[in-house]
Amino acid sequence: MNGSIVIAASLAQKPLQGGHAWVLLQYLLGFRRLGWEVLFLDLLTADMCIDAAGRPCPPERSVNLEAFRIILDHFGFQDDYCLMDSQGESSIGLSRQQVLERAGAATLLLNVMGFLSDDEIIDRAPRHVFLDIDPGFGQMWESLGLTQIYSGFDDYVTIGENIGGAGCKIPTCGKTWITTPQPLVLDYWPARVDQGSHGITSIISWRGAYGPVTHGGRTYGLRAHEFRRFFPLPERTGQKFQLALSIHPDEAADIEQLQKHNWQIADPLEAAGDPWTYQSYIRNSAAEFMVAKNMYVDTRSGWFSDRSICYLASGKPVLAQDTGLESIYPAGRGLLLFSSLDEAIAGIGEIVGNYSRHAGAAREIAEAYFDSDRVLGRLLEKLGIG
Q1: pTM for the whole structure
Q2: Residues 67 and 214 in one domain
Q3: Number of structural domains, the chain?
């Protein structure tokens, strides 16, 4: 055992999003693989709670609580989590006193997006690290004086791998950012080299939680603003495309355009509502077509999707919109990049025409660049932790 790490993040607030659960699980499982004891901290208040139909309900009857417990218990963390209420007391899991004791004995507290604001717990931890998994938004808000989410941390880590570089437009806010790929625990993602039944897919939210941000005289938008450029892709390639798409019914014009251009739309709850359906959906896909948020693209952030690394590990080629990735990862086999519609059409043709070659290379890229042992080991080294 190397010691202990506390990870604080929002899982219970997003109970029907298997992909989001996997983002956090990769860190929990990955650090445990390296021999670390891991404590997971989360917060759930009554106003966040819904039932399976999305209606408000008491916490004890909520899908939030049920999903949280099922996921963490399934992966063996039943003795290593605390879900706190609005008063900072334990709803389920370890008691507050146990959390304080374990935080005090930990090597570091990894605070995802600054989620945890409980000063007593934070002050017990000897080292407080900010983990940025949505690069661009927070940095621009801070630069504009709209928030101060970076106060009180000892270190700053981001998955925007170009932040701090000459070509990246995301402000550093005077911080030294430690960059890292996202980790993936390969044991949970065996390769399945076949073309599945869903066609070329992705699992996406049309807009997400944040609105566009104007910074430096330029407005940085969302995935919707990028995806519209690629509406004609199914017609132009003659291939089957399916999206497990979270989109509000009010986006009627965009839904109509997707259907007009032969995009199939799957229910995201059925396709990816928990970690296991999420895995199954990816394994039954031929490849991923990944469109990024405009924020990630126009800033040349170096962001790469947590979904895409799951596709790669599963032996599924990825055609990814370029966010400044060309100098970070090898592109051309298994992972192909595009910026324009014509480049996307050409990329699809290459994947379809040489599928076995690209499927095999996809797994090789996952093993070489995203294996949690390597990624988290290097991150600890960058933090000066042996």
Answers
A1: 0.97
A2: no
A3: 2
